[in-house]
Amino acid sequence: MTKAKHPEHELIVVFKKNVPEDQSNEMVTSWNVEFRSGMDSSKGRIYFNSTGEKYILTFNTEEELDAFEMNDYQFLPEIHQIYTPNWDRQKD
Fold this sequence. Notes:
Elements: E1 10-15, H1 21-30, E2 34-37, H2 45-50, E3 54-58, H3 62-69, E4 79-83
Antiparallel strand pairs: 1-3, 1-4, 2-3
C-alpha cells in the first residue's frame, strides 16, 4: 500500500458544531484559498463528531500560508480551531 502524498502547505479549519454548512462554506470561499472538505484523522472520532464542518486549505508556498495565518481567522466566533494537519498520525 502506497502512502498518499499531501501538499506540505496545508491547514485544517474546523468550524463550531452550530455553524451551518452553507455559512462555513461561504466563509472559506471568501478567503480566496484553495480548499476541499475534510480533515486529517489525528484528532479522532469524538472530535470529529463534536465539531462542525471541516476543510483542508492548501497553499502554494510557505509565504501564502504565513500571510493567511496573519489574518487571525482562528479568532472568528464561528471557528473551533485551525491547525496544521498530521497526516502520519492515525487515531481511528
